[in-house]
C-alpha cells in the first residue's frame, strides 16, 4: 500500500464521494446509519464541485508553504496482480500495466483550519497551539479486505506530514453515536477526545493527537 497526492487527472474529487457512498450500507448494517444517513452523495452536483475543488486546491498549493487556507488531499492505493482482483472490482482500477493494477483503497484530506461546525470546541486554528485538521478519512468498503488498515496508514502519514510541516498537534472530529465505536478506533490510533458538539441533532466529538 502506498500514498499519493489526490489528482484532478484521476478525478479523485468524485472518488472521495464514491468512497464515502461505499460505506453507507456497512454503516447501516452495524447500527450507525445516523452517522451519514443512507443517501448517496456522489450524484450531488454541489458536492462534486466542492470535492473536485478540494483536489484542485490541493494540487495548486502542494509545494507552497503551509497556512490556514492550505488543503492537502491524499489517496491510499494498492498495486496487485490483475488476476488477484475480483472481476467486479476491475472498474475501480486506475491503471494497469504488465498484468498489475493500481486500485485506490482510501482517501484523506488535511487542512489548515478546523471545520466550521466544530468551532465551539476548537477555534479555526490557534497560533499558540497550532494544529493540522484531518477533515476527511474514509476507506473504500468495496475494496475490503484489500484496504484493511488503510485508515491507520493514512493517519500515520498525517502524523509524519504534520511533523514535517512543524506541527505538534493533529485534530479531527467524528460521529459519537453507536456506543462511541468510532471514537474508540481513533483512541487506538493515539487521539484523545477534547469535547462534544451537536449540530442539527448530529452528535460529534472533537479529538486531538499530540505529536
Ligand atoms: C475509519 C476507517 C478509515 C479506519 O480504517 P482502517 O484503519 O483501515 O480500519 P478498519 O476499517 O479495519 O476499522 C478498524 C475498526 O474500527 C471499526 N470502525 C471503523 N469505522 C467505524 C465506524 N464508522 N463506526 C463504528 N466502527 C467503526 C471497524 O469495525 C473495525 O473494528 P474491528 O477492529 O473490531 O474489526 C474506516 O474503517 C472507515 O472508512 N470507516 C467508515 C467511515 C468512517 O467512519 N470514516 C471516519 C469518518 S470521521
Automatic annotation (TrEMBL):
<dbReference type="GO" id="GO:0016747">
    <property type="term" value="F:acyltransferase activity, transferring groups other than amino-acyl groups"/>
</dbReference>
<dbReference type="InterPro" id="IPR016181">
    <property type="entry name" value="Acyl_CoA_acyltransferase"/>
</dbReference>
<dbReference type="Pfam" id="PF00583">
    <property type="entry name" value="Acetyltransf_1"/>
</dbReference>
<dbReference type="InterPro" id="IPR000182">
    <property type="entry name" value="GNAT_dom"/>
</dbReference>
<feature type="domain" description="N-acetyltransferase">
    <location>
        <begin position="69"/>
        <end position="211"/>
    </location>
</feature>
<protein>
    <recommendedName>
        <fullName>N-acetyltransferase domain-containing protein</fullName>
    </recommendedName>
</protein>
